[in-house]
Model the fold of this input.
Amino acid sequence: MYSALNALVLALPLTVSAETVVGVYMYHRHGDRTPKALKPANLTDLGYQQVYQSGEYYRSRYVDSSADVKINGLSSNIVKQSQIDVSAPSDDVLQNSAMGFLQGLYPPVGSTSATETLRNGTTITAPLNGYQLIPIGSTSTGASSEDSAWLQSTSDCGNSEVSSNNYFASSDYTSLLSSTEDFYQDLMPVVNGTFDSDYVTFKNAYVVWDLVNVAEIHNSSINSSDLLTNETLFQLRTLADKHEWGLAYNESDDLRAMAGMQLAGQIVSYLNSTITGKGAGKFGVQFGAYATFMSFFGLAQLPAANSDFRAVVDYASSMVFELFTPSDDVSSSNFPGSDDLYVRFLFHNGTATNASEPVEYPLFGRSNSTISWSDFQSEMTKFAVSTTEQWCTKCGNTTGTCAAYADSSSSGSSGASSKSSSGGGSGISTAVSGVIGAMVTLAVVLGLEALIMLVAGLRLVRKPSTKSVSGGAGAAGAASEGAEKSAA
Ligand SMILES: *[C@@H]1O[C@H](CO)[C@@H](O)[C@H](O)[C@H]1NC(C)=O
Ligand SMILES: *[C@@H]1O[C@H](CO)[C@@H](O)[C@H](O)[C@H]1NC(C)=O
Ligand SMILES: *[C@@H]1O[C@H](CO)[C@@H](O)[C@H](O)[C@H]1NC(C)=O
Ligand SMILES: *[C@@H]1O[C@H](CO)[C@@H](O)[C@H](O)[C@H]1NC(C)=O
Ligand SMILES: *[C@@H]1O[C@H](CO)[C@@H](O)[C@H](O)[C@H]1NC(C)=O
Ligand SMILES: *[C@@H]1O[C@H](CO)[C@@H](O)[C@H](O)[C@H]1NC(C)=O
Ligand SMILES: *[C@@H]1O[C@H](CO)[C@@H](O)[C@H](O)[C@H]1NC(C)=O
Ligand SMILES: *[C@@H]1O[C@H](CO)[C@@H](O)[C@H](O)[C@H]1NC(C)=O
Ligand SMILES: *[C@@H]1O[C@H](CO)[C@@H](O)[C@H](O)[C@H]1NC(C)=O
Ligand SMILES: *[C@@H]1O[C@H](CO)[C@@H](O)[C@H](O)[C@H]1NC(C)=O
Ligand SMILES: *[C@@H]1O[C@H](CO)[C@@H](O)[C@H](O)[C@H]1NC(C)=O
Ligand SMILES: *[C@@H]1O[C@H](CO)[C@@H](O)[C@H](O)[C@H]1NC(C)=O
Done:
């Protein structure tokens, strides 16, 4: 009764205005997991539930036939692979989170829809009540993020690592390191089973907080838990936030935020392909680590809208970019021109549900959370990295695939994707395979049909074997191969 009323009230303002959402790009954090300090980290049942609920919420927002903000033409019940593009790094927690989310977004269709009759008359019903198989592409960077204490190392970007390391030389850092020494040492009895005392300092603020946070959620018997007062827990979290923000973003040194720049490139490329493809690609979803949120928040000046954006986002947080037009008459033959398109940014801290929906925030220090597509594109392009060449140049990497751009005769992004296939022939090193993975992701984002077919070929693969099978699929496998090496 209450929730029905609530849903009605929430739905009202959205249904009044005549507008059509033609495409969405989403970036999503994983659900609750075990601590980074105890590798390998796993998605917990709680985390599975969180991402599943988030998928259910976004189903009711974008996918369902009665959805509040239905994406124009998006298939409601049976997934159409060409309309949706899902990716996550080669990381078990993130891959599994993406899978759990998709189960909520496109639930099993039931045995009636998932039944076919063969030529010889035999009737076949798909397993698991018509569970839908949706391929998840592997992004090049971020491999094993959830097992890494030092997230910038998963960016693979030389100059970003240097930049983040500079944080450890800043006065912000050194003064906190010394002023919090006693605070951390006082917590030793709580964590001494896991960490040595020289590890427990502000230098490892996130990993220490992460261990305690996981214990606070899962463990009924924490060592010396009387030391963990609300105030201490708050301070641990706040210090971790400061530490991670310092590593993810610096106003006068954009390179630190390479993860956010790459994400910006992916967002613009995806939504641009939605426009140029007249709405063919409709829903891009990427799972990733919290540091990418922070880098992006910094670049997009979200702290100007709310200073809370300087903190680590909760598990299963999501941000979405909705591309819409103020008209309810849209089809591929009557697709709006870029002058009639707008972008709206929304964020939800933690699992989005009917009872707690994402909130709009203005980007780029503006006051309006709706922005025209051309403004959005030009603001994003100021920092977006969308080609391998840009990546190599900014990161200062000159070997492997980046060697192609080390001399002046460069050929741009189209050259980059053809190189990925020719490079495949001659023994690829791990580092190079990372870059090839980057180009594969880019190609997927650009909606190359051939690549979609390649990935769609993987859709009969069940969860545990996703990585090994994608490893067999030509260049796409390079990324997972690299990940297995770095995980080892
Ligand atoms: C994660 O799961 C693996 C088995 O799949 C197990 O060996 C490992 O200990 C688990 N990690 C934690 C922190 O529980
Ligand atoms: C029909 O074909 C399927 C698949 O080839 C096979 O498993 C099944 O035994 C066949 N049924 C009959 C009655 O021949
Ligand atoms: C880029 O350079 C850094 C530092 O030299 C290195 O750690 C990283 O593996 C390189 N990445 C690639 C993809 O070559
Ligand atoms: C941000 O970058 C500037 C210029 O490189 C540097 O002086 C400053 O210390 C950096 N701040 C932090 C917190 O890293
Ligand atoms: C951790 O500290 C507690 C309290 O000081 C002590 O009783 C315990 O033996 C210590 N455990 C280890 C593994 O050092
Ligand atoms: C608490 O102490 C026990 C025994 O020393 C250890 O096994 C456990 O990991 C400790 N808990 C934490 C959170 O460090
Ligand atoms: C819970 O905490 C106790 C004491 O710190 C520790 O011995 C135990 O291993 C922890 N359990 C889990 C599941 O982490
Ligand atoms: C600590 O916070 C929790 C919830 O945030 C609250 O239930 C509890 O009463 C607080 N404890 C103290 C001692 O303030
Ligand atoms: C958008 O797509 C068109 C056609 O593919 C391309 O020419 C243009 O460069 C793209 N713009 C951006 C910003 O990606
Ligand atoms: C998200 O929630 C955490 C506390 O759970 C808070 O520290 C952070 O500032 C919040 N972020 C935003 C953007 O609201
Ligand atoms: C959320 O609200 C929608 C209607 O807007 C409803 O169809 C859906 O069942 C609700 N989901 C949950 C989990 O209550
Ligand atoms: C925000 O921008 C949109 C699109 O330009 C415009 O329609 C709307 O009136 C603006 N809202 C406010 C409060 O300025």
About this structure: The longest strand covers residues 20-29.
